[in-house]
Amino acid sequence: MPDDARARRQAGTGLGIILALVCAAVLLTALPDDREGGGTCAARTVRSWSADTRLTGEFARYGDDATRMDDWTGGDGTHSVRLPDGRMLWLFSDTYLGPVHAPPNPVGESFAWRDTSAPLVRNSAVVMSASGRLESTLPTPVFPDPGPQQWRWPVAARVEPRSPGSSDQVVRVLLWTRTTGQAPWIYGVPTATEVATLSLPDLRLEGIRTILDQRSVADASQRVLYGTSAVDAGEWTYVFGGDDLQAASRPASQAYVARVPRGRLGEPGAWEYWDGKQWAVRARAKPVLGDGQRRGVGSAFTVVRDGGTYVLFTMAAGTEGLTTITSYWACSPTGPWQGPTRSFSPSLPEGEVAAYNPQAHPALSGDGRLVLSYDVNWLDATGASAQANLSRNVSLYRPRFVTLRLGSGS
Prior knowledge:
The chain has one domain (32-408): Tachylectin-2, Chain A (5 Propeller). It is globular and about 60 Å long. 44% of the residues are buried. It has a five-stranded antiparallel sheet, with no helix packed on it. The protein has a four-stranded antiparallel sheet with strand order 1-23-22-21. The chain is mainly β. It has helices spanning 3-30, 53-64, 384-392; strands at 44-51, 74-75, 79-82, 88-92, 95-96, 120-121, 124-128, 134-137, 150-161, 169-179, 189-198, 205-213, 225-233, 236-242, 255-261, 272-274, 279-280, 302-306, 309-315, 325-330, 353-360, 370-378, 400-408.
């Protein structure tokens, strides 16, 4: 064989090897992986779901019990955290207290009811025994108002060491601070993300620290509050949040994510925010999901980790968002998020009501099951007629629960 032909063949062989290596590298790079926590990532969607009547019934039992006059009879913003002694702490935003009366109600309907003058507080916490029975309501409000025309709504919570390396544990509760505003801010203007510390085992409030103050952001629809969900993976706790694009008449809000070294939620300087390219301590965060139209999240959503896959549940965009829960999945908290995938519509009571705030409860999940709650309210939840309707039928303002099973698919 002539030297020049041999050289051409050798060069072609070398080029083929290089191309093969490049292709292999591309394929390996394209394979989904959980970059934060280790594990295999695969597309996930809701395979099946069913109503969890036991949990729903337990909250109905506790809410209807008139033994005490200062305990929980209904609330929304349902979050939970397992305590070291096996108890569960349930956290709620706006909460009704006071007695509940057996049916019939004043208009002759077969619904348990409360007086329209029943106390309404901005937040509450209910303790469930290790056996799953709701037992007591902490003195309310658990988290006092930070100032005039302001209030605090509790969201995700974690049990952490009091300080890094300490054997003494406390509960850290993420809080949303909101301020009274004019329309369209009928649920308040987003103001700040805070973290409260509760002692263990007595659950006494020890203090509250501001994590991210948003008052300097002029456009309130662009303010981000963190804590609607938190996921532990590897050395980090990933804390998800959202903006208020929906209040500004956009079909869907946008999701954001921050991260904190595990066990340090209460340290503002330990928080890092995703700026679209990297994690930074002081950065203008960029959304990881949402186009302001058909893809995005509701005002509150939840994220779980299934193997190496992150799965996000939210109310669907548009009018379906009044009744329908949908999901997205990703191999990293920062995305890219795929979906929306298969949706489902949980049961709702009769009347002009809406579902909102789907929240996962991992401490109650297992064996391939995921427990998810959703809140129910009157469709027009701001007027005097709404309060009358919620009082006429107390079941309209309590969490309901479903059990999901996830499967492969997109």
